[in-house]
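Page 37, continued from 36.
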């Protein structure tokens, strides 16, 4: 399993960035939210998934990240250089760790949920979760935890898409 941090220090593509972090408590869950302003990359990052092809990281792009205590996901909202909302990407994860308050981190559980700019929900990488179970990288308990967390998140998102986009857009505007 991979671990990722809010500053994205292990991300080789990211050459120059600016990082701002603060406390938050969206929907009553305390945690940390940040803005990662991408100034220079080795190359733009384009992803092609079931919802189309989109550039999610390039010079001038900004990522809003939110991690909440005890919650089994890590939220990353992406905005382009024209301030357009691109998507919200949820890594299903073990609850994040806050032992470094300015740089929380999480353990990725392979499964992901994307809320697209046109408010569609896409579940991704289920096959990676299955492969991790088959390879013994995770146990059945972790596998079941990831599936349950994903289902709960999808149910919540169905009812709160617009509110969530408003929230991340507000953070983006405040910290940009």
């Amino acid at each position: 399993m991979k671990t990722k941090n809010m500053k994205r220090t292990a991300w080789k593509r990211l050459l120059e960035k600016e990082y701002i972090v603060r406390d938050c408590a969206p929907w009553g869950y305390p945690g940390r939210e940040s803005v990662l302003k991408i100034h220079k990359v080795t190359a733009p990052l384009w992803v092609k998934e079931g919802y189309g092809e989109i550039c999610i990281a390039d010079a001038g792009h900004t990522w809003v990240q939110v991690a909440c205590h005890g919650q089994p996901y890590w939220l990353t909202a992406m905005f382009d250089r024209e301030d357009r909302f691109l998507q919200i990407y949820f890594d299903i994860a073990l609850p994040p760790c806050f032992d470094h308050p300015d740089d929380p981190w999480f353990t990725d559980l392979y499964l992901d949920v994307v809320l697209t700019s046109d408010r569609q929900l896409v579940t991704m990488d289920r096959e990676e979760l299955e492969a991790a179970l088959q390879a013994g990288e995770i146990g059945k308990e972790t596998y079941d935890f990831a599936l349950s967390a994903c289902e709960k998140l999808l149910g919540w998102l169905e009812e709160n898409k617009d509110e969530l986009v408003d929230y991340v857009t507000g953070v983006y505007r405040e910290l940009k």
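The chain has two helices and ten strands. Flag for discussion at group meeting. Helices lie at 126-134, 140-175.
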